[in-house]
């Protein structure tokens, strides 16, 4: 439980690292939907090549991408197996009892797994090449139009970055409390379900108390430094939209008619 | 608790961080399909809703699911379902609690919230969530039923899957959340009020 990588950001100097978070966010968001246009070998090929190009451009080591994939790998494998054995179309390759493996099923399984893989790799690349703070800044900027609808975009972004900042801190806190309570004889990882649920309470009470205390301190510190919401707030890191950002969006936009033309 | 709007904002952010951490320790129940995992991450949202009103609770649900999606990726159907379920529980719960502000009204509110949440989620599963999984993950409803059958043999169609798995799942989840939230609130309240 304690090895969650929150903000999987890997520092680097690649083109993807230097892009504006807004263009990356828009591109990934659009690609999640565009992937569904693919429905044959050619269109899936185009998308796979594009994903490989993105991986190469990011210059992130494959180990990190695999780490991002790990939580969803099992889902992809299950999806592959289910699709391969339950879709009955095309020629039979293998037929024994209720195991039917057909060419159609295999193709279907491959397509769906590739689709899932591409979506996950794209989102992983985004989080690998962009710091959580940059993502939040980019989101805040992109959602600006909603301010007109009285939606508190700035506050939302602020809460998101505070939460991101404090997840590791609270995780450490949890670990400390767990150790302290284990020393007092509370069992967290064994015993029947009812006992484990009872053990949650002595863990949660101190955790909440410390979170409330931290919130109070943080709010006071912010107020002491003159925080008044986003009115007149200046930024240390400004977002800069460059040529490569426009190019990325152009590639994504061109991809739509290409896939529509090539799909069967 | 004396609250400025900034303190409220920061507290909501920290409660979301706790909710996110709890969401990570999700565990499946026996006799249920594996994709239904019990997580108690609604607890911080309930505490937030009691302190600052239902909107704060819904914001915590939203932030928690956003953070969870940002770290796991994939297709956010599970996160969306979790958000809707949590929000329904919180809206019903705090609506009843806020009229009396007693432990009894909190208990009644959360129990009613659990029931409404379970029923609504069953309907949503039947008409939206299962079909959505079929479209996005590419395995049709029939295969999901076969998968669920492996866990429980009396499941034979979508309706029985929902009655035997989704409905009890949400009720158990709601009861667990209620059973932990109330004693937690009892212990937190004196400390939070003393600081005022």
Automatic annotation (TrEMBL), chain B:
Major subcellular location class: membrane
Gene3D superfamilies in UniProt: 1.10.1760.20
GO function terms (MF aspect): riboflavin transmembrane transporter activity
Pfam families, alphabetized: ECF_trnsprt
InterPro entries linked to this entry: ECF_trnsprt_substrate-spec, RibU
Transmembrane segment boundaries: 12-31, 43-60, 80-97, 106-129, 158-186
Membrane protein topology class: Multi-pass membrane protein
Gene Ontology cellular component annotations, sorted alphabetically: plasma membrane
Keywords: Cell membrane, Membrane, Transmembrane, Transmembrane helix, Transport
Name of the protein in question: Riboflavin transporter
Organism placement in taxonomy: Bacteria, Bacillati, Bacillota, Bacilli, Bacillales
């Amino acid at each position: 439980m304690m090895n969650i990588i929150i903000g999987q950001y890997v520092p680097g100097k690649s083109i993807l690292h230097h892009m504006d978070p807004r263009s990356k966010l828009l591109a990934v968001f659009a690609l999640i939907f565009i992937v569904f246009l693919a429905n044959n070998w050619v269109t899936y090929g185009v998308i796979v090549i594009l994903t490989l190009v993105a991986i190469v451009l990011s210059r992130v080591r494959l180990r990190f991408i695999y780490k991002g994939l790990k939580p969803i790998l099992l889902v992809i494998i299950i999806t592959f197996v289910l699709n391969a054995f339950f879709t009955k179309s095309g020629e039979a390759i293998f037929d024994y009892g209720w195991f039917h493996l057909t060419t159609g099923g295999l193709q279907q399984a491959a397509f769906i797994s590739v689709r899932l893989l591409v979506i996950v790799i794209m989102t992983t690349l985004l989080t690998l090449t962009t710091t959580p703070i940059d993502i939040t800044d980019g989101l805040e900027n992109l959602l600006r139009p909603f301010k007109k609808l009285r939606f508190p975009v700035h506050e939302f972004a602020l809460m998101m970055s505070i939460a991101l900042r404090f997840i590791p801190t609270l995780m450490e806190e949890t670990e400390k409390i767990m150790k302290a309570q284990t020393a007092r004889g509370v069992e967290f990882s064994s015993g029947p379900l009812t006992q484990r649920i009872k053990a949650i309470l002595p863990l949660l009470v101190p955790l909440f108390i410390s979170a409330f205390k931290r919130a109070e301190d943080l709010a006071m510190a912010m107020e002491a430094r003159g925080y008044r919401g986003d009115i007149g707030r200046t930024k240390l890191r400004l977002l800069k939209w460059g040529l490569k950002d426009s190019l990325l969006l152009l590639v994504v936009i061109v991809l739509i008619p290409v896939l529509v033309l090539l799909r069967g | 608790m004396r609250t400025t709007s900034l303190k409220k904002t920061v507290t909501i952010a920290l409660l979301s961080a706790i909710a996110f951490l709890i969401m990570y320790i999700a565990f499946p129940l026996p006799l249920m399909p594996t994709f239904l995992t019990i997580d108690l991450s609604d607890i911080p949202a309930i505490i937030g809703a009691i302190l600052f009103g239902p909107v704060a609770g819904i914001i915590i649900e939203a932030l928690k699911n956003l953070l969870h999606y940002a770290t796991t990726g994939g297709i956010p159907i599970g996160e969306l379902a979790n958000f809707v379920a949590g929000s329904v529980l919180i809206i019903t719960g705090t609506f009843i609690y806020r009229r009396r502000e007693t432990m009894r009204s909190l208990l009644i509110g959360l129990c009613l919230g659990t029931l409404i949440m379970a029923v609504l989620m069953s309907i949503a599963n039947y008409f939206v969530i299962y079909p959505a999984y079929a479209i996005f993950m590419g395995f049709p409803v029939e295969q999901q039923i076969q998968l669920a059958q492996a866990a429980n043999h009396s499941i034979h169609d979508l309706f029985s899957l929902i009655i035997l798995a989704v409905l009890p799942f949400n009720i158990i989840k709601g009861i667990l959340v209620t059973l932990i939230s109330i004693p937690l609130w009892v212990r937190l309240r004196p400390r939070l009020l003393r600081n005022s």
